[in-house]
Amino acid sequence: MVREDGEVFKKMLRRKQVLAFFANCQSSLIGIEACGGSHCLARDLSALGHEVRLLDVRHVKAFVKGNKNNYNVAEAIFDTVSRPNTRTVAIKNSRTDQLIHRLRQDAVKRRIAKINQISR
Prior knowledge:
120 residues, 3 strands
């Protein structure tokens, strides 16, 4: 994490401690590697008032210096997120995705029914 004065400090957090830690921080930019569980964490951090950017693992991998460990990957995420034209992954909202999927299924069923009705 980088403070306003430019000082970088390292703090290892367990999954349960992340939300409590960021709830006590002022709103900031947070970069996270995109994976299955990152979307839920991104929604929770956004609700706390932070700006969250999910980054594609391939883009982060290019900035990893040395062997892959938590600190080196965190530094690579910082380098990636601080670049102005970095592509990000959209934060998925599970309810919205389910709604779109159901609407599409309904449209497909109606289309098939119309095709069957015409062909009879």
